[in-house]
Write the structure tokens for this entry.
Amino acid sequence: MKKFLLSSTVAFSLALSVKGQSQVPPLQSVFESGNSINADNKFLILNRPTSNSFLGLNWQTNQVNHFFIGQREIGDNNFHIYSYGTQSDALTININNSFVGVGTMNPLANLHIQKTSTQPAIMIGGNYARSPRLQVFGLEIDPQAWMGLGTDMDNGPYEYSVYFPSAAGGRLTFGDYNGTAYTVRMSVLNNGNVGIGTSTPKSKLAVAGTITAQKVKVTMTEWPDYVFQENYPLPSLNDLKQYLNTHKHLPDMPAAAEVEQNGLDVGDMNKRLLQKVEELTLYLLQQQEEITALKARLQKVENR
């Protein structure tokens, strides 16, 4: 093992404060040994006699502090990178569990990034225009709220999940930002409702605009085959005429004002329309029976 002293070409400033008094003692131990870090092979040792002191490296420009790296909390053995610009820790490493904290002195996970302003807690992006990026925001109005992307292995090995804030109004949005305003294109609420073109869907899928599709399948029950049952109460044409004169729309069909206010259930409307087509078929069959009977009577008259 070779022992050496720091030469004039390499300068370290060791800031040590004990019980409120600033001192600058020399480095206590400097070693160059081996190619691994263990109890015997240590490249550089900064030793403080008690935990009641600050120990580390301080960066200055013209005697103006910029950063401090080391153990800066009295009674705290954690490692810190402190920014004088923000007057806060930029990074903390917990000595007991090696948890790393960014923006927090008390990391609760292997990597804990604490949002400290209105800016994103995490941003990944290029340095050129229109570059892709990833932003993760927290909710300052609800400290219990959280969101993220992940996997939940409880119900299967390939169950991927999207997590929503715990707040009742939590939602996941997809949109675009033009540099001034954010426009929501699609929203997924934490109740499962999905909105396209709307951020407040009132149903499982709400679309504010036109839907183009090659095929739409609607599952239905109680399809109106019952119209052709012998006991079906088919109204007479006279009763139907009186109803039309009074209500101005077919029986069992919504009025125009109701549709304008509440919209239209496509599946239910197709069922109602089929019911009317089948009733119309029955009316035509009745009329055909009457026409056939009249033709028979006319034929008898002509044959006399």
Notes: The CA atoms of residues 117 and 225 lie 64 Å apart. The chain is about 20% helix and 30% strand. Residues 1-34, 128-132, 138-154, 156-160 have pLDDT under 50 and may be disordered.
